[in-house]
Design the sequence.
């Protein structure tokens, strides 16, 4: 129950806690750590086992998730229990004797500090959540301080922090007792800038006396920024640290970072003799992972942001997205993107340095990334003016030769003349390809895996392999019409004619869900059941086939057509709605709560289509009679473009159908590997790549590998922000301010004005949007779009004119402003806001009360 600190090295963290484990490892590595001992979690558990402790812990395990009041009440009772229950005599004697050994040469002051099992984790530091007691003297005071450290595990702030970070609800706590450094100057050292993320900067906060004043915020410390070589970049001229001491701190910081393999947050102190002591070192938890690189600065664009997902990719998903992007390699390379995608803990990046530095490629790259994930394009342009990215000589052969361009125009003309036939041809080709992805109904695991390996490339590149002329004609027709109307109609007005576009599979999916809901609404019993039952229970009943027919058959029909989809669906490893229909029921409930004719999605879609047709007529009539031929051609192109525009979403829908077919085969392979006891769950195959699945099927046990990768994925999935552009030094460039009329400015993505209360949503699964509310999100993909049916407008932090979310927003006829940095933090749920989707502005009103 009690270990000398030097003996705690190599002990499990669940015995000594994170802080003690780190300090023990530092001691073993030769870093200057004050002498001390650790009262382990075994001691805490012995104390907690007395009296009512076991009963209170049992109650804690049965508190429903989200019941904050019950959780707080139990925490209060556990804290009171720890403060009053008797400490076993043997344990008390052991603590006293360990303290007396520290005091063998005379009275000594100690620091008594927590070391929880849920502390100093790679993704949650728990900094300041548990109590620390300094300048403690005498055995009696040490015992009291140890007890108060135990009790701080159940403080209100620590309990809330654990709940917010979804960590162990009932952790254990060890306590460190160390000699107190008689500090002349103390503080905190960060081996990377924790604010900017810059890995090439060291930050030091220092103040005279004990470092606790700096950590707690009780004083305003001297603030220094250093280069990694220890040279001062910024700092006070009369601070408490000399240049030599700053250099010593920089050196020890570099050593700690190298030892632990990650940037460190270090607490330190210089005593009166000028000796440096280290009292803590832990990972800096806020830094976003960045690809490793050497030499000149590199710039990266996030594939996650491009695909509209704010979670890391699973390993299988990452391998599939790489295969998919190889089909676009020639086009992307011409824009300045790297040929291959880099994976860092599930965050995928293109290296865009080539495009940033090329005056010829940069405008095209900026336009491309802004169309998908604004304001990425503005960031690319900014970096092009950055002296760290000096321009290179323009390349040659980047433009499409005129002759080839003419042939491309010629291929689009039949699509404009006969749009329905052109679209039908694409659909027939897609159905033929998808039929080949179904795989064997009866086969061995070996045969199933071989099938997946044989068709993987065709599935991942189906978007690139589908006939593209009709799809291109749909987008190009609108562009040509805009050129014909230039001077009389602006670009934002052209966008208004693409509301209520037919044949978009994502819009059709939303409307199919609405129709299923309307059928349920007409059945009073089914309607009440759906509103009164939790989505997870409904999903279980659906899979068991025990729901009323109108629900069972309606949802089954929806899943048969669209069950291949999901939130973050571009990640192959993510369960489809067919696998887990709970999100579908949550969306159905959301739709059923929307009442009134103005909320009828089909009616709104029909009105949007009619308004778009009227808008075509109105816009083309602006041309004078002398330009009547241009008006006629523009009207023709806009109408034909509307007939083909729905194909914009069709290739990705085909990819999702292919993904679903391959997932089914791989999960069956996973079941066989589970039976062989080389995986724990069938879906563990999604944390491998295909080569590893082959190894697992043959003989290799991957359970430990999968457990480690799942832990990393879950850690990374909790990150609150995903930068769209990231530099190799760890910084995420900020968008330069642009004057605007609203409080917030972004890209005008779907015309119109909406005034309503904001609803900030981070995960659409189970989310609810009341009619008239404005959806505010970091990003969206097709899994979000059913929420658009009741939303009055859309605001996102990323997205562009052709991203999936904005395309569907326009088709549903709701205003949208995208590419608004920090929108989910700057706007609060319940706040009245005005969204002007024509001007790209958001005006903030009063906040919720």
Sequence:
């Amino acid at each position: 129950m009690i270990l000398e600190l030097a003996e705690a090295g190599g002990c499990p963290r669940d015995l000594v806690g994170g802080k003690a484990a780190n300090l023990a490892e530092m001691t073993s590595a030769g870093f200057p750590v004050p002498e001390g001992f650790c009262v382990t979690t075994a001691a805490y558990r012995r104390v907690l086992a007395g009296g009512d402790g076991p009963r209170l812990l049992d109650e804690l395990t049965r508190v429903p998730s989200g019941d904050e009041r019950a959780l707080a009440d139990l925490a209060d009772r556990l804290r009171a229990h720890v403060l009053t229950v008797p400490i076993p005599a043997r344990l008390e004697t052991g603590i006293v004797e360990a303290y007396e050994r520290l005091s063998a040469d005379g009275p000594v002051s100690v620091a008594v500090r927590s070391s929880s099992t849920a502390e100093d984790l790679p993704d949650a530091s728990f900094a300041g959540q548990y109590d620390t007691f300094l300048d403690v003297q005498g055995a009696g005071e040490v015992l009291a301080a140890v007890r108060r450290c135990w009790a701080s595990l159940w403080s209100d702030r620590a309990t809330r922090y654990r709940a917010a970070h979804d960590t162990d609800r009932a952790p254990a706590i060890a306590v460190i007792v160390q000699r107190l450094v008689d500090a002349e100057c103390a503080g905190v050292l960060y081996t990377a800038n924790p604010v900017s993320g810059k890995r090439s900067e060291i930050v030091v906060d220092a103040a005279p006396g004990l470092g606790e004043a700096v950590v707690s915020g009780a004083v305003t410390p001297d603030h220094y920024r250093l280069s990694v070589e220890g040279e001062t970049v910024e700092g006070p001229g009369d601070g408490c640290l000399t240049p030599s001491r700053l250099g010593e701190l920089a050196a020890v910081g570099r050593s700690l970072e190298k030892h632990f393999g990650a940037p460190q947050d270090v607490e330190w102190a210089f005593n009166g003799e000028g000796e440096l002591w280290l009292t803590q070192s832990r990972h800096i938890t806020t830094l976003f992972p960045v690809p490793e690189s050497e030499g000149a600065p590199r710039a990266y664009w996030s594939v996650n942001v491009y695909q509209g997902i704010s979670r890391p990719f699973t390993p299988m998903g990452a391998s599939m997205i790489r295969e998919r992007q190889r089909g676009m390699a020639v086009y992307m390379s011409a824009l300045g993107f790297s040929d291959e995608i880099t994976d860092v803990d599930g965050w995928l990046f293109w290296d865009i340095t080539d495009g940033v530095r090329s005056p010829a490629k940069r405008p095209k790259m900026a336009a491309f990334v802004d169309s998908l994930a604004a304001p990425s394009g503005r960031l690319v342009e900014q970096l092009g003016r950055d002296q760290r990215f000096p321009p290179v000589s323009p390349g040659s052969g980047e433009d499409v030769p005129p002759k080839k361009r003419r042939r491309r125009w010629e291929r689009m003309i039949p699509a404009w003349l006969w749009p329905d036939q052109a679209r039908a041809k694409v659909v027939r080709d897609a159905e033929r390809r998808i039929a080949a992805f179904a795989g064997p109904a009866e086969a061995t695991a070996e045969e199933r895996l071989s099938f997946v390996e044989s068709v993987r490339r065709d599935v991942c590149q189906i978007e690139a392999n589908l006939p593209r002329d009709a799809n291109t004609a749909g987008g190009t027709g609108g562009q040509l019409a805009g050129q014909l109307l230039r001077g009389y109609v602006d670009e934002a007005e052209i966008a208004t004619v693409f509301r209520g576009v037919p044949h978009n599979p994502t819009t059709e999916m939303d409307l199919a869900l609405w129709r299923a809901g309307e059928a349920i609404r007409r059945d009073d019993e089914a309607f009440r059941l759906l509103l009164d039952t939790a989505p997870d229970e409904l999903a279980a009943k659906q899979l068991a086939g025990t729901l009323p027919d109108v629900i069972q058959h309606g949802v089954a029909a929806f899943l048969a057509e669209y069950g291949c989809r999901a939130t973050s669906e571009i990640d192959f490893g993510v369960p489809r709605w067919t696998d887990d229909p709970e999100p579908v029921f949550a969306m159905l409930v959301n739709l059923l709560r929307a009442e009134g004719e103005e909320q009828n999605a089909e009616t709104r879609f029909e009105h949007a289509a009619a308004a778009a047709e009227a808008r075509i007529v109105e816009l083309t009539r602006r041309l004078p009679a002398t330009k009547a031929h241009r008006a006629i051609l523009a009207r023709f192109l806009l109408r034909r473009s509307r007939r083909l525009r729905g194909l914009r979403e069709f290739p990705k829908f085909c990819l999702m159908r292919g993904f679903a077919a391959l997932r089914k085969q791989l999960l069956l392979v996973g079941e066989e590997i589970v039976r062989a006891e080389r995986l724990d769950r069938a879906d563990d195959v999604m944390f491998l790549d295909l080569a590893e699945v082959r190894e697992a099927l043959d003989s290799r046990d991957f359970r430990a590998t999968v457990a480690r990768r799942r832990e990393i994925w879950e850690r990374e999935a909790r990150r609150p922000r995903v930068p769209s552009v990231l530099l190799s030094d760890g910084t995420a460039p900020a968008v330069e301010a642009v004057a605007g009329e609203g409080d917030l400015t972004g890209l005008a993505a779907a015309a119109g004005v909406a005034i309503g209360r904001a609803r900030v949503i981070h995960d659409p699964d189970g989310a609810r949007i009341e009619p008239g509310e404005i959806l505010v999100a970091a990003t969206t993909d097709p899994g979000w779009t059913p929420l658009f049916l009741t939303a009055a407008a859309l605001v996102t932090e990323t997205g562009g004119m052709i991203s999936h979310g904005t395309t569907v927003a326009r088709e549903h006829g709701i205003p949208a402003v995208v590419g608004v940095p920090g929108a989910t933090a700057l706007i609060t749920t319940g706040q009245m806001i005005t969204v002007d989707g024509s001007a790209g502005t958001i005006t903030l009103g009063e906040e919720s009360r």
